[in-house]
Design goal:
By secondary structure, this protein is mostly helical. It contains 14 helices and no strands.
Amino acid sequence: MNLQHRLLVPALAAGLALTGCAGDDAKTDLPLGPISQHLSDLDFDDDITVVLIAAQEDLVAACMKEQGFDYTPTSLDTDQVAALLDWGSEEFTQTYGYGITTTWQDIPEMATTETETLDESSQVMYEAYQEALWGTGLGEDEDDGETWLPGGCYGEAFAQLGMGLLTSTVAQDITDLTRQVDADDTVVAALYEWSVCMADQGYHYETPTEAQSSIQERAFTDDGQTVSGAALTELQEEEIATAVADHKCSTDLERIRAIVLARLETDYYADHKTEVDAFLVQVEEFLTQG
């Protein structure tokens, strides 16, 4: 699971795939559609975010305890949250890469040893722990046309704290707009230039999504177990290096994507103003509930 799946407010921003809400200073100059503009004007207050994260983690820990597992809640201070909300910035990528494997803190002790294999009883317990935490389907392809939300104790926590917003019709439509962006001819050309830039740095991917998916896919073994020990350390290093290269190659691509997304958002908003306005009110209420 990447970091933005695990933490509430960043997950909201990631789920909607909004351009320009956070990140490098250069990104603040990108054009915004009416929906992204509204959300970028909201105050992503670091203190409120800390409260929401703490509430989520307490709910997860209580849920896991009910099922017989010890879970140590993730604890972030305001500085860490500020960095997290800067997802995609140069500083973030240099520290966390894509936030996929670089922040794992909740793996049971038995799965974090240098031993690459577990005995049968430990394997069964490990799998039961992961299923209790995330639900079934851990590590499966999430690009199924819908915003992904976890099951298990994380799913229960997300539901209790209002993350059902991400499964609403408007949220799904907004997410779909971001998928339409890459079909635009100007974006297709920019993606080709991105792939050339990446190849010059030794990475052979056609899209940033492919680069991220490569890390995600290798984060799990064939039996669904998360990699650990030396293999995890190596993958984390590769994730950061890949994300840094991606960031370097993405300047023109992000600008062109932002232009196209702003146009698509404008058209969508014109046709669904009432529904979108109601959705944005819900988002604002969620972000200020702390």
